[in-house]
């Protein structure tokens, strides 16, 4: 699922409101949210973009280049969890990201959270995409739904429950796009 236009606009505004300079995106897909992030950053801002496939990044690269923001992007290909573990090993990375957007494999959202919470600064934001999962998170378990939706539904419910009780963050879940949960790190 791609980031919706209204969600892209929201992310851009949030990045500007918090004066973000150092951001991260986990899961690039077509590059739309990456473009929105790069456009919202100041000229010296950076976004670390992680994706398992360089092909996904290259889909949006022509628009990123046309917009003149390719210099703000540090793309790294590979599984996000090992890349995050490498970042965490360097103490200088902890608490340095202003904004992190997660829109990758839903079955690893909780694993991502357990890592990115250490990388985002106190007062920084983490955004999780697709946290309403086409509304399936509010349906009974036996409700009819596509197998793709049913397959990841439990993981999305799991991360929603975890975020709701995580005392290190304040959360706001919005019905924008397919649902976005914003987490402001408070400790």
UniProtKB/TrEMBL annotation:
SUPFAM superfamilies: S-adenosyl-L-methionine-dependent methyltransferases
Keywords tagged on the record: Methyltransferase, S-adenosyl-L-methionine, Transferase
GO terms for MF: O-methyltransferase activity; S-adenosylmethionine-dependent methyltransferase activity
Pfam families: Methyltransf_3
Biological processes, Gene Ontology terms: methylation
Ribonucleoprotein among keywords: no
PANTHER family reported in the protein's UniProt record: CAFFEOYL-COA 3-O-METHYLTRANSFERASE (PTHR10509:SF63), O-METHYLTRANSFERASE-RELATED (PTHR10509)
Function: Methylates caffeoyl-CoA to feruloyl-CoA and 5-hydroxyferuloyl-CoA to sinapoyl-CoA. Plays a role in the synthesis of feruloylated polysaccharides. Involved in the reinforcement of the plant cell wall. Also involved in the responding to wounding or pathogen challenge by the increased formation of cell wall-bound ferulic acid polymers.
Family: Belongs to the class I-like SAM-binding methyltransferase superfamily. Cation-dependent O-methyltransferase family.
Name assigned to this protein: Caffeoyl-CoA O-methyltransferase
Organism: Trifolium subterraneum
């Amino acid at each position: 699922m791609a980031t919706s236009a209204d969600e892209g606009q929201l992310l851009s505004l949030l990045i500007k409101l918090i004066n973000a300079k150092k951001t991260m995106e986990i899961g690039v897909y077509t590059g739309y949210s990456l473009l929105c992030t790069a456009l919202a950053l100041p000229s010296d801002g950076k976004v670390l973009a992680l994706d398992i496939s360089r092909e996904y990044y290259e889909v949006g690269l022509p628009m990123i280049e046309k917009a003149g923001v390719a210099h703000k992007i540090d793309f790294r290909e590979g599984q996000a969890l090992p890349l995050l573990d490498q970042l965490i090993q360097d103490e200088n990375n902890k608490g340095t990201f202003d904004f992190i957007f997660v829109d990758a494999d839903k079955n690893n959202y909780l694993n991502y959270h357990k890592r990115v919470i250490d990388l985002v600064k106190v007062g920084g934001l983490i955004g999780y995409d697709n946290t309403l999962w086409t509304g399936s998170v509010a349906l009974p378990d036996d409700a009819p739904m596509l197998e793709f939706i049913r397959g990841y539904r439990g993981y999305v419910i799991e991360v929603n429950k975890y975020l709701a009780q995580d005392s290190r963050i304040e959360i706001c879940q919005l019905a924008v796009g397919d649902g976005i949960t914003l987490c402001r790190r408070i400790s």
